Amino acid sequence: MFRKIWKSISSVYLLYELNTCIYMLDPWEKRFVNAFIFAILGLLIFSSYTFLPGYTRKLVNAFLPAHSALSDLDMDHQRSMEFNIH
């Protein structure tokens, strides 16, 4: 079981290396590029959660079951009806 999981993770990492062309770099260069990519990704996720909470919530709800996404759409519709926005 553990071997299958490790094999799938290593194959995904190999695809990541091939797609980003970092397979030809030295090990220290790989660590530097990976740290840079994950830092940018982390900052992107943090800033979108902090500065765009409504849009981020809708994006997260798009990937969750339909019940939570529909409840947010209903809440937005109710808010727009309170202020007579059509």
UniProtKB/TrEMBL annotation:
Signal peptide: none annotated. It is found in: Endoplasmic reticulum membrane. One of its GO terms (cellular component) is serine palmitoyltransferase complex. GO terms for molecular function: serine C-palmitoyltransferase activity. It is a multi-pass membrane protein. Pathway: Lipid metabolism. InterPro entries: Ser_palmitoyltrfase_ssu-like (IPR024512), SPT_small_subunit (IPR051900). GO terms for biological process: ceramide biosynthetic process. The chain crosses the membrane at residues 32-52. Keywords: Endoplasmic reticulum, Lipid metabolism, Membrane, Sphingolipid metabolism, Transmembrane, Transmembrane helix. It holds the Pfam family SPT_ssu-like. Belongs to the SPTSS family. SPTSSA subfamily. PANTHER family: SERINE PALMITOYLTRANSFERASE SMALL SUBUNIT A. This is Serine palmitoyltransferase small subunit A. It comes from Anopheles quadriannulatus.
